[in-house]
Design goal:
By secondary structure, the chain is of the alpha/beta class. About 40% of the residues lie in helices and about 20% in strands.
Length: about 140
Amino acid sequence: MIQEITSQSRIRTKVDAKTWQESIRLAGKILLEHGDIEATYIDAMIAKVLEFGQYIVIAPGIAMPHARPEEGVIHTSIALMTLKEPVVFGHRQNDPVRLIICLAAKDNTKHLEALSDIADIFGDEAKLESILAERDPKLIYDML
């Protein structure tokens, strides 16, 4: 399913972000440029972290910012972004973050399907390391 909701053009590698907020803005901008979300969705993702904490840091080195569908999702999609240097979100166990998986889900069913696929792919440590080391978005897309 993950290849159905992302594309090579929604993958960026070695992006320079100084803060967790900037990393979310840059990943969200990918979805915005593709018409998948409204600009309000980016602010909503940041607001969720400020309100609920670092729950989006779902595994060591991986953050998955997202917000509610009604906060600006147009199409279900995922943007994937590796960082040039890791950023700190403030999560005790899973910081620092090297991979941002920005999720825009149109409904809860799509949200759960995407989470399941993401867990399968990024639960494989060797595959995760390959994705983090790769600079070519096409090769990362093919790994998905």
